[in-house]
Amino acid sequence: MTFLLEAGFLAEIALKNHQKSLQFGGNWWQYEDMLHHNPRELLQLINRTSPSSHFVFDIDSTLVHLHKRNQSILKNFLEIPETQKRFPKQTKNFFDAEFKVGDWGLGDALERHGLTPEDNEFFSELKNHWLEKFFSNEFLHEDIPVYGAVDFANEIQNRGFRLSYLTGRNRPNMLEGTIKSLANCGFPLQKDYSNLHMKPSPDMSDEAYKMDTFKEIIQEGEDVLFFENEPINLNRAARDYPGMHLIFMDTTHSGKEHPPEKCFRIKDFTELAGQLVT
Ligand SMILES: [Mg+2]
Fold first, then answer.
1. Can you tell me the mean pLDDT for 143-149?
2. Which domains does the chain have, with CATH numbers?
3. Residue 24 C-alpha to ligand 1 middle, in angstroms?
4. DSSP state of 218
C-alpha cells in the first residue's frame, strides 16, 4: 500500500495509461476487447472435472463489482465540511461523478468528469481518504455481485465441490464487512468461515499471500480452478502452480501485467450458472 500513498493520483493514472500503451501499442481497453472469451470451453472442463475439484474464488472484481463502493467513498469525502471548504470547485465538479462497472479505482471515473493537473492536491487528499475507507468494513455493503456469480457459487457448493474464497482483503479491518456482504448477496459461507481466506495484515502483498495460502489449502491430487481478475496473481499462479486451471475474470484490473496466455477468460458467470450437468 505504501507506493500508493507516495505516488500522486495524477502521476499514477498517467503512469498506468503510459504502461498500457507501451505494452500493447494502443488503447488498453480496445486490446482487452479483442481477447477471446471462452465460457463454453470452461463449462466443458467443469462438467468433466472430478467431484473432488476445488473452486477458489477471489472476491473483489471477480465475484463482486466495486464501482458503487468507490462512488460512495468519493461522496463520503465530498460531504465532509472541511473538504467543501478547502475544495469548493472540486466538490461541485465531482459530486455527481458516476462510476461504472470496469472502472479501476477512482481515476477512471474522475477522468471522465474532467480531472486535470490542477486537481492534484484534491486528488491526493481524496486518495488518502479512499485508502482508509476502501480497506475497511464501512462500505463493503455497496458491492454488487457479478452477473451469475451467486447462482454459480451455490451450484458449486451444492454439487459437493470444495469452494474457497481467497481475497486480498485484510482480516483485521475487513472480516466483519466481508462476511455480512457475502451473506447478504447470497454467496455460500461455511458456518465457521473456515473457507474464507483473508490477509492477516494490510501490509502483505496480495500475490505473496495468495501463493502462500494455496500451499495450505490445496489438498494432494485435487484439481484447482482459480477465478481471479488480477493478472499479477494469475501469472504467479501459472508459474508456481503449473497444473492449476486459471480463469481470468475480465472485469477490471491494475493494468500492470497482461493475463497469462493459457487461461480461460470470462466477463461474468451468466454462461456457467444453471448449465452444470447433474
Ligand atoms: Mg480481485
1. 97
2. 1-34+67-142 (no CATH), 35-65+145-266 (3.40.50.1000)
3. 22
4. P
